[in-house]
Amino acid sequence: MNSTWLPVAEKYSNAWTCRIPHFDHRTTSRMESAHSFIKSRLLGPNNSFTAVIKLITNALEHQSHEISAQYHQEKINSLKYIGNIFDECHGRITHYALRKAQNNFTETARIDKNSGCNGDHHIRTGIPCRHQILAVIDSGGKIKPSDFHAQWHINVSFSFSISFYFSLSLFFLLFMGVVVAGSRGDIYFWRVGLGVVGLKRYAFYFFLESLGSRRY
């Protein structure tokens, strides 16, 4: 293990993820954090179906308010010591992404202008790479918000999108339960309804993961 696999572990991972937009998340820690977040709000395994839905809804709303408040702060407060090339991105791109882009901007001083760009960095992170930034510098332009992936755009209407998504999912679950209960009897409401929840929870956890992957 120490002599064969660990020295090339990073290259092995990169071979499978270099062309996938994962925003520098290559571990399951974010997913595990999302699972822990849900479990901490359920308050035990003995809650009813409606109580679980209410607890998760309250947790999501609380989380969305925190993210929305952070967005408003970043929209108002501009980062210091950021290159003028990013002037059009202040208040529109998250601070985390701007700091990463600033690091890439610093790297342009040491780049070999004859080296090519394969575009892997921009695909993986959604942040302009040093080659892209150097090209903009040479053209006398500025980096635009559209050069960043939508993941890093500040969206002050974020809380509404969360509520709408969860309400739509909840409506689907209840609709399925009502249809089954009406056609086969009340006992099937719980069997099929809980089965649907079991299938949907993975999509729900993935949704939470996408929220957690936003950094500031």
Q: Order of SSEs, N→C?
A: HHHHHHHH
DSSP E strands, number: 0
Radius of gyration over C-alpha positions, nearest whole angstrom: 22 Å
Percentage of residues in helical conformation:
55-70%
User: Which consecutive residue ranges, at least 5 long each, have pLDDT under 50?
Assistant: 184-216
How many individual helices? 8
Main beta sheet, described?
none
**Can you give the mean pLDDT?**
76
Termini gap: 36 Å
Label the overall shape: flat
How many distinct folded domains? Answer: 2
Structural category: mainly alpha
Strand content: under 5%
Task: For the structure shown, list the relevant keywords.
single chain, 2 domains
Short overview:
This protein has 216 residues and is an all-alpha fold. The protein has eight helices and no strands.
Describe this structure in words.
The chain has two domains: 29-74 and 156-212, no CATH class; 77-152, no CATH class. Helices cover 62% and strands 0% of the residues. It is built from eight helices and no strands. It has helices at 9-17, 29-42, 49-76, 95-107, 120-125, 130-139, 158-184, 186-212.
Topology, please?
Elements: H1 9-17, H2 29-42, H3 49-76, H4 95-107, H5 120-125, H6 130-139, H7 158-184, H8 186-212
Helix pairs in contact: 2-8, 3-7, 7-8
